[in-house]
What does this fold into?
Amino acid sequence: MKRRPIVAGNWKMHKTNLEARKLTQAIVKALGKVRGVDVVIAPAFTALETVGKGLEKSSVSLAAQNCHWDPQGAYTGEVSLSMIKALGAEYVIVGHSERRKYFADTDEIVAKKAEAAFRNSLTPIVCIGETLEERDADQTSAVVERQLQIGLGLIPAESAASLIIAYEPVWAIGTGRNATPAQAQEVHAFIRKYLEKKWSKETAENIRIQYGGSVKVENARQLFSQRDVDGFLIGGASLDAVGFSTIVKDVMQLARQNKPKESLCTSSC
Ligand code: PGA
It folds into this structure.
């Protein structure tokens, strides 16, 4: 089964709408023609419309970084999925560790957001990952399994194959310390096995699992060469048009080689 790679840039709380317009132009220019890889940009809500317009003639898709699960209501400061969709977004990031840590997003909330995304015809990028304390205490599998069990709990089986999961070890986010390719592969394989148990082998083989956490030009090729790494969710490095597009092009090139993934990086990385 060959999964189409997906590389997403998470701009977090960076860039005004005018700055976002410039960065979008620079990314579209640096990327040129993209084939065989899905590319996604997630700006702040305030720049969604501007970035969406800037991407209109490109093959790059738009994502929001968060959402509320209800269609509308008295939720001051929140943004619904229909509002996001009306601006052209096709994806929404849910359960990012920064949302879990600073804004109290629980696994139950993640589940509601992921289900609501599908209900509104958007694709959720569900983020999971353990903290350093949890890894050191040998809790990685247990934490990831709990996040999957609850976080994916409301997704209908018929939507599951198009789901995107981002494995982002919290200790690797914004720290410059990425998981090694082997560490990433180990958890990605564990996630895929879980998905197989939950749904089916076919569904599990279709679901794309991104790695995130200090992904940069220097480590992207090796990480992508792992069997179960289907792309990236990139924070810091996605704010640099040249760096981000270099990663996309590297993924494009490796994916085109059509070789077993394990053999990709033996000579070329
Ligand atoms: P980083 O962030 O690439 O800056 O580590 C990744 C993320 O938070 O999605």
Remarks:
- The pocket of 2-phosphoglycolic acid is lined by residues 10, 168, 173-174, 212-215, 233-237 (CB under 6 Å).
- The chain has twelve helices and eight strands.
